[in-house]
What does this fold into?
Amino acid sequence: MDQIQILFLLIYLLTILLSATEIVPLSVGAMIGALLTVLFGLLYNVFEYGEAVSFIDFRLLGLLLGVMIVVEVARRSGLFRFGALYAVKLSRGNPGRLFVFICVVSAIVSLFLSDPMAMLLIAAAMATITKLLRYDPVPYFISAMMMINLGGTSTLIGSVANMIIGVEAGISFTEFISYLAIGEIALWVITILILYMLFKSRLGEKKELPEYNPWESIEDKKIFYRSILILALLVGLFLTLENLGVGPEAVALGCAILALALSSFDPAEIFKKLDWETVFFIAGFMVVVRGLESTQILTEISTQLFQTLGGSTLAASMTTLWFSGLTSAIVSNMAVALTFTPMISGVFGTNPALWSALVLGSNLGGATTPLSGTVAIMAIGALKREGLTLSFGEFTKVGIIMSVVQLGFASIYLIVRFNLWM
It folds into this structure.
């Protein structure tokens, strides 16, 4: 390892440190790293200015922004809150059924919404219901957070980490589903069963639900139905991408324009609500990782690691799954995805087992401790607003159990799904 490689590695580690400790906002930490990368890259002739500009994958940013706009329009139409309230109504006051419905709805909502936005919506619905029924909100909040973190693992738009991996690996929407959908459904069932066993004694007793009509939460049914149509169109076009001859970013941006045109919402207000923090974090961190990649250090590390593992796809998949999962418990899974993608593509190319391992690991590790990610922090904040305090130890106990179980099942699933024992 030469001096330039060490310098760029230190810049990368500084960016990770700033992101993990939140000394500065996430996006600012990434942009500081990007500035240092470009500055020293040009100074030491590691790359030219034109190359530095190309480090940012505008296809990924287009996909991200397009999906954000469609989802924000759908959120404002009341679609996701309607789904949550309707699921609660179907529970008929049965705490066990209510618990399962909240878990399932949380996971489904996170298929389309960013995890923080999904947490905000589900938290608002749960706070109302648990207060009316006088249930202990802690098991419902923690379980919803676990399911939001898990939900969307099998779809290209299910999480930002998935979008990063999908664009880099060239995995289509349908391929994502074919590789991971069965595993995710099984993980939903396993996770709900374990969470139910952990919290069964705290769910409360059966009570009569107050009379309410979920449709009353819908202010404009015309926009509500249009939002459903646009979401269905988005998913439908993603499923047929191979026949369209365009990338997923084109579909996402096209549906975003349609959503803005067919709704009566002020576009300026829609744009204000987009998660710009995530957009700038990804752009900045891309520059840091691509700059590090330009020094060839990532290729050297991944090649040496693969040789150490004896060239075994099984060993490489398990290492990727567990290392990315454990790392995601400390560092943003977006950073984990951005770091691992060039390492995997450089050595393994389009090997679906490795990419699936990275998807599962980067998603499943994000709910291990209260510091693992934004969703965990938001769930604890929502409980505080209800006058309740959740200890670090209580949360971490559940988080570690669920992460180990989920990663353990994911290991078995990968071996069976991709015949890795052969």
The chain has one domain: 3-417. Residues 3-417 form one domain.
